[in-house]
Amino acid sequence: MASPQLFIILAIAAIFIPSISAVEFVVGDDKGWTVNFDYQSWAQGKVFRVGDTLVFKYPQGAHNVLRVNGTGFQQCQAPEGTEALTSGNDVITLATPGRKWYICGVSRHCEVGNQKLFITVLPQQLSPVYSPAPSPSPSSVPSSPPTSGADSHYGWNTPAPSPVPGYSEVRKYYPQTPGSATGYYPKTPGSATGYKA
Q1: How far is CA 152 from CA 92, 145, 186, 196, in A?
Q2: Less CB within 10 Å around the terminal CB: N or C of the chain?
Q3: For the segment 22-47, what is each residue's pLDDT rounded down to a tens digit?
């Protein structure tokens, strides 16, 4: 029979290990959330997972953050009743896998200033070790490449990527350096509040 102390240690580890592996992404790195910035290039190459956070930094009152769907992203319009984040240090916890779209709803910042972000969030990885995945069977390999074109860049014509079974990514801390495109930051407890995506 397992001791009560072992049970308590395992329970505590189960609570804290996922938050240790979470990453905090400052949207736009040192530029923050602003107009005339290519957020798709910023997001390219980054791996967003459930439990990670997005931090939108901007001068309070100059911008806001609205979570929209693919149509709202294309049209730069939020559905009626969409809650705007306006603190200037808005933190969004990525709570579910899938596609996420964010825009600025101030003036025409989205339409004219391209102030919008699209990402795909993958499921959380609990194991920080690499284990090779089995080779896909010939029947599971697609016969044709996914749809391409301008719309596929923003995710409404392509399927969301699915993680390869048996593969766990090792996530490391990369300090932000001027001109760097890495932008991975460890999540720190007590960050500013926001809403879950």
Answers
A1: 24, 12, 30, 25
A2: N
A3: 999 999 999 999 999 999 999 999 99
